Give the backbone structure.
Amino acid sequence: MAVPASTTCTIAANPQPISFAPATTALVLIDMQRDFLEAGGFGEALGNDVSVLRACVEPCQQLLAAARKAGLLVVHTREGHRSDLSDVFAEKLQRCAPGRRIGDAGPMGRILIRGEAGHDFIAELQPAAGEIVIDKPGKGAFYSTDLDLVLRRHGITTLIIGGVTTEVCVHSTLREANDRGYRNIVPADCCGSYFPEFHAAAIAMVSAQGGIFGHVTDAAALISALAIAA
Ligand code: C5J
């Protein structure tokens, strides 16, 4: 459903309330993939307890439903590589122990390889038909992708960014979005990290210094605002 361009929403946020127009706002969900959230994938190969990330799944689902109802542009990103590994730098390949590296066989197929089961989105957050999927080889969603082109083509000026992990791919993306002139809104409960202390610090960094990278809020505030706009 198309939202009238004149509709605006105002939400409570840190460091201050922020208004946004649903017509020029995209929900960007970062890397809600089996490789990061389920056992046997890349996240676990890096030595992490992947169960910690589950807490952000339900808030993401609820926010995604509200965004769809309000007609926001929805973007899903996936980190992953070509099956011949021609887009992975040696440095990144060597981060995991031999046998558990990118491209090695795991219980969900080859680790972090496009098209494998582990590379797919988790069942709870599958893209709907017509939603945009960005395949990215790096941490930031703008690096070596057409995300900026797609957002600008849709007249998007504000990004609501959630996903995993807060201090890695979410932060890399929101920092670059900030430099590119987008306004960032980060619902903290829609983001997750393997390290709760990194999550807390990464969220605090967003709204510090007058909102140096953006505004921090939660899913409930966005859902209420989007319900009025829908
Ligand atoms: C990581 C990501 N943590 N999606 N990727 O390697 O944050």
Observations:
- The longest helix spans residues 196-211.
